[in-house]
């Protein structure tokens, strides 16, 4: 089974044949971003391995409430803004915060990364996708196999926009006119 980090999208188009299923309202893609209105859901059509993997999101606007859940729906976690200016990871079935911090500058929350490292959840945020700040850790309640969904919760905004999922943020650009080029075959 593929690792969760292999689920990638830059949202230049919305692939509803292989990658995503639309549930609820009508999420759509425009200008290279995914738009989620109130009660819109976008769910991956495949299960993924979350053990020692991650979910990386670039959130342009709003609170798309990324959710990971087990195939049998016995366990689910959601991360994002908590409605009172903090951030957290919520065990949806136990209805308790696993991670929580106080109010933050929205510019610091452009990139979100939730990763599993040997059974520990680590929530990180970044303003630029390169410089990461750990926001907290907790025991991972999820099984190794998960499905991922983006759910517009309506908290703080009636529209959310997501630009990238699991795309590298630290690949250096190839310099133009580097002078010499060597190829080895």
What does this structure look like?
By secondary structure, the chain is mainly beta. It has one domain: Jelly Rolls, CATH 2.60.120.200. It has strands at 20-24, 28-30, 33-37, 40-44, 48-49, 54-61, 66-70, 76-81, 87-91, 96-101, 111-117, 120-126, 133-139, 145-151, 159-165. β11 and β12 form a beta hairpin. The chain is globular. Mean pLDDT is 79; it is low at 171-185.
CATH architecture: Sandwich
Report mean pLDDT, rounded to a whole number. 79
Kindly state the number of beta strands: 15
Over all CA atoms, what is the radius of gyration? 17 Å
Domain count: the total is 1
Number of helices: 0
Specify the CATH class.
Answer: Mainly Beta
Fraction of helical residues: under 10%
Proportion of strand residues? over 45%
Overall, the morphology is globular
What is the terminal-to-terminal distance?
Answer: 32 Å
**How is the biggest beta sheet arranged?**
8 strands, antiparallel
Q: In sequence order, what are the helices and strands, one letter per element?
A: EEEEEEEEEEEEEEE
Structural class: mainly beta
């Amino acid at each position: 089974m593929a690792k969760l980090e292999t689920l990638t999208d830059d949202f230049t188009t919305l692939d509803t044949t292989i990658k995503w299923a639309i549930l609820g309202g009508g999420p759509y893609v425009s200008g290279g971003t995914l738009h989620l209105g109130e009660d819109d859901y976008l769910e991956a059509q495949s299960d993924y391995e979350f053990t020692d993997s991650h979910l990386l999101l670039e959130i342009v606007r709003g609170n798309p409430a990324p959710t990971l859940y087990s195939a049998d729906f016995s366990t689910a976690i959601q991360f994002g803004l908590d409605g009172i200016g903090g951030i957290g990871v919520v065990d949806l079935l136990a209805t308790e915060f696993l991670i929580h911090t106080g109010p933050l500058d929205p510019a610091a929350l452009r990139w979100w990364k939730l990763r599993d490292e040997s059974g520990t959840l680590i929530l990180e945020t970044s303003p630029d996708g390169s410089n990461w700040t750990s926001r907290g850790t907790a025991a991972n309640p999820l099984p190794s196999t998960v499905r991922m969904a983006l759910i517009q919760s309506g908290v703080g905004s009636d529209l959310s926009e997501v630009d990238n999922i699991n795309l590298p943020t630290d690949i250096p650009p190839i310099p133009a006119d580097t002078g010499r080029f060597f190829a080895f075959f």
